[in-house]
Amino acid sequence: MPPHPQTHAATAVQPGAVMTRETLPAARRSMVDAAGVEVGDVAPATVERDVDAGGVPCRLYHPGGALAPVVVYLHGGGWVMGGFETHHGICRRLVALSGCAVLAVGYRLAPEHPHPAALEDAERAVRWLYEHGTETLGVSTERVGVAGDSAGGHLATVVARRARDHGRPYACQVLVYPVIDPDMDYPDAGDADLGAEEMRFYWDAYVPGDRTGPDVSPLRAELAGLPPTLIVTAGNDVLRDEAERYAARLTEAGVPTIAVRYLGVGHGFFRKMAMFDAAEPALHQVATTLRAALTPR
Question: What is the pTM of this model?
């Protein structure tokens, strides 16, 4: 399918570049610098504050008022870039649309901190959340959700499976164009926002060694018993097929799963609210899923 016309404007704001360890610092700065144009002016949550979650930097977005249900959010950026500055728009909109609080996790980045550093940070932050969230953050930990986009979607589903194994499952998981398969069997899809060579750089930076274990390759995990799942994919994205294969595998394992493909758009559209009309309905869909799963009936 030809790319959506809005893709050309988005690419002009942040043109693609060859990713190497030498160009990574500039790519990190570029992602932050472009966020203002890509995300636009999004109203802040009632409460926004930085939190030290057991040594892991996090940012709380809270709707205000009584104890709010909470979703843990893991940002994208190929495990090597991204953070609070690039994903504040998503977190703010999800709070406004869902009524849930969002705890965004500032996990350590590769290649300086390869796997399992990001996974360890996410789980450490969640342990702290369960121990201190109610009194310190004003959130309810009765039903907690986990969500993430791209590399953050990969982390989210691994965290969800490990939580299931440890007897404290999440109430839901939301995966937005998640990275799933280190075999990198990419379709004839994709656009200028993300290419196969760029993904190879990300995988090499994050997991330079063995990639066969379930903490790296979710398709090789036992999936039964994972929480109800929403998977959002982009029609022109090299990650489209692997995410949809994962949705099919979840369904086969008996996990309530909804998979939705947004046609014509490429990787990253969800975060770029000022550039893609499709971002707002996708945010509404995610927020509705979170509200239904986390709000007491």
Answer: 0.94
